[in-house]
Amino acid sequence: MIPDNPRILLSNDDGVAAEGLAVLEEIAKELSDDVWVVAPEAEQSGASRKMSLTEPVMVSRHGERTWSVRGTPSDAAFLGIHDIVPGKKPDLVLSGVNRGQNLAEDVSVSGTVAAAAQAMQLGVPAIALSQTLMGSYDRDRPPFEVARAHAPGLIRRLCRTGWPPEVVLNINFPDVEIDAVNGVLVTRQGRRDQWRLHAERREDLRGRNYYWIGFTGKLSNPSDGDDLHAIYNGSISVTPLHLDLTHEATRARLADALAVEATE
Fold first, then answer.
1. Beta 126-131 vs 167-173: how paired, if at all?
2. pTM above 0.85, yes or no
3. Would you list the domain boundaries of the chain?
4. Under a CB-based contact definition with an 8 Å cutoff, are residues 100 and 130 in contact?
5. Phi–psi pair at 119, nearest 5 degrees
6. What residue spans of the chain are helical by DSSP H?
7. Closest by alpha carbon to 7, among 167, 157, 115, 124?
8. Maximal C-alpha separation, the chain
9. 192: which of 97, 136, 219, 220 fits an S-S bond (Cβ 3.0–4.6 Å)?
10. Mean pLDDT of successive 10-residue segments in the chain (264 residues)?
11. Which residues have CB under 8 Å from 160's CB, separation 6+?
């Protein structure tokens, strides 16, 4: 049960100076007066659940309740819960607001989702928040306006409802005008029908090859009920995620097959 006026820890993967983290702090302060920040020193997009196990993690303080870590989103969430934030453990961790979507298979590489997953693993309810940017990242309209407007009320409703301790909530806000949001949908994690990741080979001034790895802007044709489908239709997507990656149908089939072979 998440109490009223919860102790909230904020983190992200875009870094402590990111605009989305400042927006998240505004959101959190509408929910509580007990808000703390522990975030990566620099951008860690795509870090997934990496933890810094082979080198020390340096910590810097930026204010009374804000720290950065020279490490990953998982490092930040772990250290924030385990040691940095004084007193009792946070009641809630919010990760984001990411500049760009975390949908479908991308959630497995997302540092934003990873920070929330690390909190969940330590017994703290957690929500990852992302503002989708389906067009150019350069724009006149403020990119976080939908998240800023809709997140406080949505988080309150989710905290009143609750969710299982092994689940992380992944929220994506659509790239539309505030008054054009088409409601909130609880979705499943989708899967794209087109491969978006690509690498562009270039050559430096000494003739050596290097690569830029990134995503294309291709849209998929998702099924109704998927996170992608919700965002494409202007809805806020709330997806309950968990870390059990077992494919149960294949597990059962293989167990039966191997049991038969063992008797032959």
1. parallel
2. yes
3. 7-193+222-263
4. yes
5. -60, -45
6. 19-29, 73-79, 111-121, 145-161, 227-232, 248-263
7. 124
8. 69
9. 220
10. 94 97 98 98 94 97 97 98 96 97 94 98 98 72 88 98 98 95 97 72 91 73 89 97 95 92 66
11. none
Which residues, 6+ apart, have CB-to-CB distance to 199 below 8 Å? 211, 212, 213, 214
The pLDDT of residue 223 is 77
* Cβ-based burial of 60 (10 A; exposed 0-12, middle 13-18, buried ≥19): exposed
- For the domain covering 7-193+222-263, report its CATH number: 3.40.1210.10
Backbone φ and ψ for 39, nearest 5 degrees, come out as -135, 160
Strand partners, 202: 210
Per-residue confidence (pLDDT) for residue 205, from 0 to 100: 93
62 close to 16: Cβ distance less than 8 angstroms: yes
Q: Give residues with Cβ within 8 angstroms of 66, minimum separation 6.
A: 16, 36, 37, 38
Predicted local distance difference test score (pLDDT) of residue 190: 93
Q: Which two tokens stand for residue 77?
A: 């969430």
Q: What are the structure tokens assigned to 71, written together? A: 């490490």
Please state, in angstroms and rounded to a whole number, the distance separating the CA atoms of residues 189 and 244.
14
